[in-house]
Amino acid sequence: MQRKKKQEERNRSFLGVTFSCCKVYTRIHINRKRDAYVGWCPKCCRKAEVKISPYGTKSRFFSAN
After folding, report:
1. Strands 36-40 and 47-51
2. Which residue range(s) make up the domain with 26?
3. Beta bridge partners of 37
4. Would you say 32 and 48 are in contact if contact means Cβ atoms under 8 Å apart?
5. What SS3 state is found at 11?
6. pLDDT per residue over 18-30, tens digit each?
7. Residue at 20 is within a domain
8. Cβ atoms of residues 62 and 15 within 8 Å
9. How many domains, the chain?
10. What is the pTM of this model?
11. Does residue 8 lie in a domain region?
């Protein structure tokens, strides 16, 4: 059962984000509604939300100010 959970985590969509507030990198994951990627800075808990556009982008890494 634990193996299945780890497999699901590996297949989960994410964006790489550098939080410039605390100079840390982390991944933010797609929400349940699948309309945005949402995450928080691991140090100061500042929220980052990236809406999913029908036009999209090929970029997978971003900076949050």
Report:
1. antiparallel
2. 13-64
3. 30, 50
4. no
5. helix
6. 999 999 999 999 9
7. yes
8. yes
9. 1
10. 0.78
11. no
On the 0-12 / 13-18 / 19+ scale of CB atoms within 10 A, 57 is exposed
Q: Residue 18: which residues within 8 A CB-CB, separation 6 or more?
A: 24, 25, 61, 62, 63, 64
**Is the Cβ–Cβ distance between 50 and 62 less than 8 Å?**
yes
Looking only at the bridges linking them, the beta strands covering 36-40 and 24-30 are: antiparallel
Query: Which among 9, 16, 13, 12 is positioned nearest to 48, based on CA atoms?
Result: 16
Residue that the structure tokens 């928080």 belong to? 40
Q: Is the pLDDT of residue 42 over 90?
A: yes
Place of tokens 């995450």: 39
